[in-house]
Amino acid sequence: MLNIQYLLTRKNFLSILLFINVIGTIYGYYWYGNQLAETPLIFLPFVPDSPTASFFFVFVLIAFLFKKNWPLFEALAMMTLFKYGIWAVVMNILTLIVSGYLPWQGYMLIASHLGMAVQGLLYSPYYRIKAKHLVVAAIWTLHNEIIDYVFFMYPRYGALDQFIPQIGYFTFWLSIVSVWITYYFGMKRLRKTMAF
Questions:
Q1: Are 65 and 93 in contact (CB under 8 A)?
Q2: Phi/psi of residue 65, each to 5°?
Q3: CB 70, CB 59: distance < 8 Å
Q4: Residue 196 lies in a domain
Q5: Would you call 192 exposed, middle or buried from its count of C-beta atoms within 10 A (0-12, 13-18, 19+)?
Q6: Which of 125, 144, 115, 133 shows the shortest CA–CA distance to 21?
Q7: What is the rounded distance in angstroms from the CA atom of residue 173 to the CA atom of residue 122?
Q8: Predicted TM-score (pTM) of this structure
Q9: Nearest to 86 by CA among 170, 180, 151
Q10: Which of 32, 71, 73, 78 qualifies as a FRET site for 59, CA 20 to 30 Å off?
Q11: How many domains, in total, are found in the chain?
């Protein structure tokens, strides 16, 4: 039987995962292209949620390949990968329910974002997150809610426009859950070491 932890720590597997995340990050920023073109400069860092989450994870993987830890990126990546991974899955499923149709890209987004949420959790035994990193990541994540739902910079899902208050409420609590998950899984005392 394949040992999943053994696979996760192979240099070849890490390199493939890094490549996938780089491509996914580039595609994610492209996907946000039209919205970014209309976004005021001050809000730009907070609009492309999912690609920024995978961008954080790119740094985590690079550090792992050098047998190092960058705990602030680990906290940011784990928290945002889970949050935006689950968020996008839920939004695409809701789009299908409300409109009765989801294009093939929607199904691709469901699969890729579910993968985002899972990968951050799978590597949590190797993180070195401390309280200060958790606090910074939590501030970033919760601040993003203000930008999205007070200044209306949230990702556009046209079929769901009538449910924005409910989506904002759901997203806030998803952020709280993401902070807790990062604390619970990312800050355990017994940590594993990346060894090839």
A1: no
A2: -65, -25
A3: yes
A4: no
A5: middle
A6: 115
A7: 22
A8: 0.93
A9: 170
A10: 32
A11: 1
